[in-house]
Amino acid sequence: MFTGIVEEIGSIRGIVQGSKSIKLTIHCKKIIDDIKLGDSIAVNGICLTATHIGKDEFTADVMPETMRKTGLGSLKIGSGVNLERALKLSDRLGGHIVSGHIDGTGVIVGKSAEDNAMWLTVEADAHILRYIVMKGSVALDGTSLTVAHIDEKCFKVSLIPLTAGETTLGSKEIGSRINIECDMIGKYVEKLFFSNLPEGNSKSERISLDFLMENGFA
To answer: Which overall architecture, per CATH, does domain 104-188 show?
Structure first.
């Protein structure tokens, strides 16, 4: 479990290609002092396991399913990546609850400045946008952000200078693919709610107050 508060920007030092997988070696400075073999580390928002730890680097295996669902396949030697160690129970939850399990990717289709803020517009598929809520939380490449605009094709977030400078988001260009993890609370609520629908009912049917009362939700 993570918070979406990036601790440092690491860089890709090595990539070993498999037929459908890769092995990544990532150079880092800050987090290396407090990780051990088998620890979970969020790399651009993706929960990976440290399989080797060196003086200033760690290695992680990326399986085919992760390659299909994320943007890790586009990384090159020298690419910057957002890094975060797993949350300790004693830590402050400065961002939001992030699992490190990516829902899919989007594409940055807009980037602009407004005074001290940087706006990013991200285009995403409908199955992702359904969980994006105005003023709700979303993790982009592992960075906890607040949704400031949403429509039927895209959503927007606004970055303060610290976030733009301390993560890879500030250097993202239009056309860049980005990992998206939606707020997990909404997904769980939907799953639990619709699993109690009477047989024959579908999610597309209108939910009424009578339905909520009949099924114990109101």
So the answer is: Beta Barrel (2.40)
pLDDT digits (tens, 9 = 90+) for 81-120: 999 999 988 888 888 999 999 999 999 999 999 999 999 9
pTM over 0.70: yes
**Alpha-carbon span 52 to 16, nearest angstrom:** 14
Question: How high is the mean pLDDT of the chain?
Answer: 92
Domain ranges of the chain: 8-85, 104-188
Q: How far apart are CA 96 and CA 5, in angstroms?
A: 9
CATH number (3.40.50.150, 2.40.50.460, 2.40.30.20, 3.40.50.1110) of 8-85 reads: 2.40.30.20
15: tokens are 């990539």
Q: 129 with 155: CB under 8 angstroms?
A: yes
